[in-house]
Design goal:
The protein contains 2 helices and 8 strands. It is of the alpha+beta class and 119 residues long. It folds into 2 domains: 53 residues, no CATH class; 61 residues, no CATH class. The N and C termini lie far apart (60 Å).
Length: 119
């Protein structure tokens, strides 16, 4: 049975040792091996206990740098308390370490808690 699952891996995900089901959402995957992609082709992420969409908001709290967050999902930056948030306007940066560049790669000029875009 595993050869059939591998052959149709773009359509099916292994859910348990008994067989396959049609891929739908990340949350539908109940084992790590099935936590790969959703039906739209988006990446999934295994938290250790559940499968979730791989988004900035779902990044583990152990990620505390822009480099780590950007490696998890492109255009993510670190946030206060750990984890990641989508980079965007200057207001997305909630701590000095996150205030480097916006999503358009424009430099920020950070001043304490008042983050301003560098002109």
């Amino acid at each position: 049975m595993s050869n059939k699952i591998e052959k149709y891996s773009k359509i099916l995900n292994l859910i348990n040792q008994q067989g396959c089901v049609t891929r739908t959402t990340c949350a539908a995957a109940t084992i790590q091996a099935a936590c790969v992609k959703n039906s739209s082709g988006g990446d999934c992420y295994w938290t250790g206990t559940a499968c979730v969409d791989k988004t900035c908001a779902n990044a583990p709290l152990t990620m505390t740098t822009n480099t780590a967050c950007g490696g998890f999902v492109q255009d993510c930056i670190t946030k206060t308390g750990g984890g990641c948030v989508a980079n965007g306007a200057c207001s997305a940066a909630t701590l000095p370490a996150a205030c480097v560049k916006n999503k358009d790669k424009v430099d920020y000029l950070c001043q304490r808690s008042n983050y301003k875009q560098h002109s």
